[in-house]
Amino acid sequence: MDNNNTTLKATPAEALRRARRHWLKGERIHLASLAAELNIGRATLFRWVGNKDLLLGEVMWSLYEPLRMQALQEIPGDGVDFVVGVYRHVNSVLLHFEPLRRFIHEDSEYALRILTSTHSTVHARTVEANSRTLRDQVQRGKIDPPLSIDSLSYFMVRLAESCLYSDIICGREPQEAELEDACTAVRVMLGGKP
What we know:
Blueprint: H1 12-24, H2 31-38, H3 42-49, H4 52-74, H5 79-95, H6 98-106, H7 108-116, H8 121-139, H9 149-164, H10 166-169, H11 176-189
Helix pairs in contact: 1-4, 2-3, 4-5, 5-11, 6-7, 8-9, 9-11
């Protein structure tokens, strides 16, 4: 059914679904090929998704956000333990997510730009998502962090990135032990005890 372009209407959402499917299979995403697959012009696809970097950012976010939402629903408790639990769960899944590992190893520089650049969709949205979680916990009186929420969120994301992409950043294979150290650091940054 996916290859039958007459049964599915080409939409921005369908373009994202197909790009995500290609990425999960380890296939490179080419806008020209994707436009042909959707039976639309490249200009239309470009209007819908922007350039390849923006499309890949949307693909990454479409995988990250449901994972984060699931963690918010499933991790028990509140306060420091809750925030650290969500952080641990999300980053542990990402640490072992084979399509992400493959993407990073195929073209490390490009992957890091898509995932960690301050202009990246993924990085900016992850910082904002963390900020929302932290604000919620502050407003409910469950945490009183010694840092501003925006700074804390930014540091949390950069700390996770340094663990998840340590093989590319500094030549050290990513490990659960480093993620646990990052969780301890987040706990301390939140004002909790290590």
